[in-house]
Write a structure and sequence with these properties.
The chain has five helices and three strands, in the order βααββααα. By secondary structure, the protein is α+β, with helices and mostly antiparallel strands.
């Protein structure tokens, strides 16, 4: 589970709380020292709620992969690609 936020802090820094939930996973919010709620991304919620999502959505990373990772997964795909001319 991600970071734990006190309710006052969560209210004051709500945008940061949402960003952290998207980036690092579920965030716990406490009220009077006890766990009260969890903030999580839509994808995590949909999976837990059993909502149907396409296979593509399930496998697609939330953020585009850095060029280094793409090159490591698919070496040489950017170099040496020949394009053909098409007349319209």
């Amino acid at each position: 589970m991600g970071k734990t936020w006190q309710l006052q802090e969560a209210k004051a820094r709500f945008s940061e709380l949402v960003e952290e939930a998207l980036r690092s996973g579920p965030q716990v919010v406490t009220r009077r020292g006890k766990r009260a709620v969890v903030v999580l991304s839509w994808e995590v919620y949909a999976r837990l709620a059993g909502e149907e999502i396409s296979l593509l959505e399930a496998l697609r990373p939330q953020e585009p992969l850095p060029n280094e990772e793409v090159e490591a997964l698919f070496p040489g795909t950017r170099e040496g690609i020949a394009f053909r001319k098409v007349e319209l």
